[in-house]
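Hey, resending since the last one bounced:
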Amino acid sequence: MMQPLNLPPFEANIKKMDGMVKVMDILRHKFVALTPEEWVRQHFVHFLIDHKGYSPTLMGNEVAVTLNGMSRRCDTVVYRQEALKPLMIIEYKRPDVDITQRVFEQICRYNMVLEVEFLAVSNGLKHYCCQVNLQDGTYTFLNDIPSYADLSSIGS
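The structure tokens again:
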């Protein structure tokens, strides 16, 4: 049994397949290994869709980016409806991993490629979201994870 998180529960579709416990990823439309980080990802994605008005058609998991010639993967990317421009990057950690400056540095490196206006990190217990000023590189932490409507309206 996975650890309870500081996120609303959801109806997880979990199966044992190929000798592994897997969970259905509603964004990738396939079963993936149920690791502690994946447990956080699935909870957070369902939280955004079910409670914050995000559309699953405007989100992607494990989105590939090329950074300094190396292929990396953003845990989740949320897109703006207009031209499907990236709007937010979300990075997940296992619940036993603290959210540190290093985690923010990781997501900021991804943002050098995608240039989104919002960054979020979660270990399932603590969640942080900030708005990035792309002109001067500063960021402002938000009190909560914004709804998709708020995200779209407060972004430029």
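The mean pLDDT is 91.

Sorry for the duplicate.
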